[in-house]
Amino acid sequence: MGVKYAFAQEYGFDGDETVAAHARAIREAFGKAIAPKTIFVRAFSRHMNLSERSFMRSALDDMQDEIGRVLNEAVCEGLNT
């Protein structure tokens, strides 16, 4: 399962990003509820400065002993069958 933003979350990102043109539904305008309406947003670029938020590396560090034990058990089981 590839998630496009996983690398930026894990290691941080400081750069420009292009957002593709898209449609979106609005239900509020100027702080007031309105009847739902679809609007179209043109493509645009924006600058992002996302700080590092490790989730994979920190989880692997936390689970290193358990992962090693389970892998070792699986290899031993595979060799014994």
Give a topology summary.
Blueprint: H1 6-11, E1 13-19, E2 22-29, E3 32-41, E4 44-50, H2 56-80
Antiparallel strand pairs: 1-4, 2-3
In short:
The chain has 81 residues and is α+β, with helices and mostly antiparallel strands. It contains two helices and four strands.
What would the average pLDDT be, to the nearest integer?
92
Which class do the helix and strand fractions yield? alpha+beta
Roughly what percent helix? Answer: 25-40%
Distance between the termini: 31 Å
Write structural notes for this entry.
There is one protein chain. By secondary structure, the chain is α+β, with helices and mostly antiparallel strands. It folds into two domains: 1-50, no CATH class; 53-81. 38% of the residues lie in helices and 40% in strands. The protein has two helices and four strands; from the N terminus they run αββββα. The chain has helices spanning 6-11, 56-80, and strands at 13-19, 22-29, 32-41, 44-50. The strands form two sheets. Strands 1-4 form a two-stranded antiparallel ribbon. The protein has a two-stranded antiparallel sheet with strand order 2-3. Strand 2 (22-29) and strand 3 (32-41) form a beta hairpin. The relative contact order is 0.19. The model has no long low-confidence stretch (mean pLDDT 92).
Features:
81 residues, 40% strand, two-stranded antiparallel sheet, 4 strands, single chain, alpha+beta, 2 domains
